[in-house]
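Sat 14:20. Reprocessing the chain from the morning session after the first attempt stalled halfway. Input below, unchanged.
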Amino acid sequence: MKYIHYYIFFLFFFIACKENKTDIIPCVPQTKVDVPLEEVSGISSSFIDTVLFVKLQEPQNTFRNLDKLKIYGDTIYILDERLSKLMSFDKEGNFITQYGERGRSSSEYVRVNSFDVDKHYVYLYDDASEKMISFTHGGEFVQKVETPFLGRGF
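Finished this time. Tokens:
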């Protein structure tokens, strides 16, 4: 849980507004926090000039680890492999949905070890059951596809 703040920290200095304007309007709501970059280990001030933080409005007991983070459009996707949870948040940090849940049915998974996102679906890979499960961006189950191989990630 301690390190999730660092991952969110890194997430938002890689996001930029789509247009360069002299009158900058932030992509996400901001609160100014003065953090000398020299005090953050592993960060070079020659590499970063602006840091934005987004506080996630997460449901209770959401994360143990942040294993994979992906931004697609205005949505932040976060995978915790230890808890086998994939959740999404909007750019303001509001919780959107969790994709699937543990179990043995077609729409459930035993262990999620990776995911990917495109304009149509969110794809979870269950390496324990060797299957790919597709969901809508809203979290509705679409289909499962069994894989004749063991995948390690996208």
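Residues 16-28 have pLDDT under 50 and may be disordered.
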